[in-house]
Amino acid sequence: MVIDSYYELILLMGAVLSFLLSMYLIFYPGKFFPNRILGVLVLSWSVTVFVFILHTTVFYERYPHLYALLDVFTLMFFPLMYLYLRNYLYRDIRHPRLQYLHFIPALLYLIMLSPFFFQSAGEKLEMMKNGFPSWYLNVQLSFNLVIILQGIFYSIFCLRTIHQFKYFRKNHLSPFQLSTLKWLQLFVLINIFLWMVGTTGAILEIAGIKLFLDLFKVFYSGLTLFTIVLGIFTIKRPELFSEPEDLKKLVSVSRPTGQRDISEQNMKDYEVISALIEREKPYLKNDLKMQDLVESTGITYRRISEVFNKNFNKSFYEVMNEYRLNEAKILMQEGFHKNHTLSYLAEKAGFNSKTTFNRIFKKFTGITPTDYIKDLDDTSV
Fold first, then answer.
1. Cα separation of 89 and 299, whole Å?
2. Does 172 share its domain with 281?
3. What's the pTM?
4. CATH number of the structural domain spanning residue 335
5. Contact, 110 vs 117, CB < 8 A?
6. What is the tens place of the pLDDT at every residue in 135-157?
7. Backbone angle region of 281, left / alpha / beta, with phi > 0 → left and psi within -120 to 50 → alpha
């Protein structure tokens, strides 16, 4: 194999630098987990650039077992980008192990192509010379479509995550943090642009259409440059969005000041949460969990729990059930029960069962829903 152009040489040097950068991010000093995710993302990008440069018959004749194996990294681009944003912006994600589910497509790729991977070197070389079986080509085509779909859906997820974070926290962020949030949004948009370039290049290649510009060279050049810039940015500003509780060991403050700051923070969080409840009525969701409020407001799980305990002076479920109870009363006063069953009314108010509805209704009012309806009917007569 021969590197026969300055472009390939520069690209190779950039890929090597990206690889070193990924190792630094993965083993970054301290316990900043998002940097490790970014490190794996940068590693995936650098491996993909290596494959693009070394993708020649001569190379695979020497290393046939690498054929198609390294392509699995392309299925990790968008999941890693989304997880990097999520973990960068939100530090207390519950059930972090569920994040591994995003890598199911990459795992399926390895499983479905395992019959090829376990072939001998001679058999692989034979396929490369005489053509691959139809099942192999179909699997590759299927996962190419998966990559395209990943680009669409994960781009939406990433932009939505940034929008929610900015919307609910814009009053609590400094101008410096807001500018950095714009940079993260730019990070997603550049990824989308590069994905569009690469996807367009792949479609044109399948269609046999030649363009005056090699879109794959644009894609891999942009990917290499962007990787280096992104890595440097993250190294310079690793703890930008740390929560106050994450910084307690870094900042020395007196106890009274700390208590006053927490009280002020609780009031701000209370205003945000109350406004969300009144505006969007999340309590109408039958399986609502506190984690849903975390994702909607961008406020950490612990701080939301403190708001319910200190400001509402009740548990999360007590507050939600009170809102549901009021919703049920409004429906009854509007005559909803005359055309629908109580079970359906309870569901419309956000309760997950009629039994729960009856129990909560009697707990707060002292009478059953049926008696309440009778009282309403008697009053209206």
1. 10
2. no
3. 0.61
4. 1.10.10.60
5. yes
6. 999 998 899 889 889 988 998 98
7. left
